[in-house]
Design a protein that fits this description.
Blueprint lengths: L2 H4 L33 E5 L4 E6 L2 E7 L21 E11 L2 E6 L4 H12 L14 E3 L20 E2 L2 H10 L5 E5 L1
């Protein structure tokens, strides 16, 4: 089954996380004449926080839902873990979960980790390194905000639909993405 469409088949709220209100969005201080260019998307899994960074300034911050597989790096396809590492924006398309921005998972470190785990016999038969990780919306106005009360994705990072639209407007292809625990 195509993993992109497999996302549609998950039980919607499999694991609870600490619920908190949406994060306040940091405002640009003084540079009204020239728009800030987002140079980095920083995602902190333990804080459930995605930040858009320009230079050393956080321009915007969002509360997010992540994969239900918990902390640590993604180990193999199907572990439902959001990866940890440095990636880039690779693609974007509308439709799946309202809007989907592709993340360049797996990187070289992910491939090395996967090969070692496979050699150790940790990887289930037939499971690959994984693919199709993205930053996306939820695809439902009715779930805005509430979907962030649990980690429900299969390894992606989920925002409200209006937030993914904003993020997509502010972020260029090939922007660096850093994901940490």
């Amino acid at each position: 089954m195509n993993p992109l469409f497999a996302f549609l088949l998950f039980p919607f709220f499999p694991a609870s996380i600490h619920a908190s209100p949406l994060l306040d969005v940091a405002e640009s201080a003084s540079h009204k004449s020239a728009p800030d260019v987002v140079s980095l998307i920083r995602i902190d899994k333990s804080e459930h926080r995605l930040e858009l960074v320009a230079g050393s300034r956080v321009l915007k911050a969002y509360r997010v839902a992540i994969g239900s597989g918990g902390m640590g790096p993604k180990r193999f396809e199907g572990d439902k873990t959001t990866p940890v590492g440095t990636y880039h924006v690779t693609s974007r398309f509308k439709g799946l979960f309202h809007q989907f921005i592709g993340v360049s998972y797996p990187n070289d470190e992910d491939r090395v980790r996967y090969a070692e785990l496979k050699k150790q016999g940790v990887v289930p038969a037939g499971a690959g390194v994984g693919h199709s990780i993205g930053i996306h919306g939820v695809g439902s106005k009715d779930l805005a905000g509430t979907h962030k009360q649990t980690d429900w994705t299969h390894g992606c990072i989920a925002l409200d639909d209006n937030e993914i639209d904003e993020l997509s407007r502010l972020v260029k292809d090939k922007t660096t993405i850093v994901i940490v625990d």
